[in-house]
Amino acid sequence: MAWVIKAENISKQYFLNNSSNLNLKEAIVSSFKELFSAKKIKEEKDGFWALKDLCFEINEGDKVGIIGSNGAGKSTLLKVLSRIVEPTSGRLELKGKISSLLEVGTGFHPELTGRENILLNGSILGMKRVDIVANTPKIIEFSEIADFIDTPVKHYSSGMYVRLAFAVAAHLDPEILVLDEVLAVGDASFQKKCFDKIQEINKSGKTIIYVSHDENSVKKLTNKVIYLQKGKLKFFGNSEEALALYENDK
Length: 250
Description:
The protein is of the alpha/beta class and 250 residues long.
């Protein structure tokens, strides 16, 4: 089966104290302190590697979970796959439209209404306006927030935001759907509705990438798992094998 995502030695480095963000006084103080701390200079020079030399291929139709403890690099990997951040080194190749639902607060313009954000997201995905408009009633119905669809999303609760964000991500015909643990914000009935929709999307041959600390949902929704440990790829393969290894490492 043909690949839709290929990662070759993907690494992402962050600098915890970027001097370019300091004002003049802070820069002078920082420089003075560095005279007395060679270790600190080395740490700031080297930075922090959130991801290090990841290599994998995800095929069309795969259902891939991403697991790992806090700080393992899961969210960073999602952002790299979604093109929200660029890797520091390595090469990432994507085939097809990718739709992402990451942490609450990203993806929508707060001043625009829910309806306007549907149009905006569809445009970003490269869809024609007529196709976005045709899908809008299904998105509104699925989100269950029709009474607030013409209200600016800055007034939405986190639950309302997630409902609409998932509905948009799932109904705008993505070829690759990327989902973070943000679905945990919704109530139980809406979570089930989302899981059913994810399975429906996958049965149509689309690719799913899903991050969660809930091992049961990972087992239910995925057939492969990327297991990250301190930014490195510890395992990529069968979901049950990956989850057993993860459980054993705890």
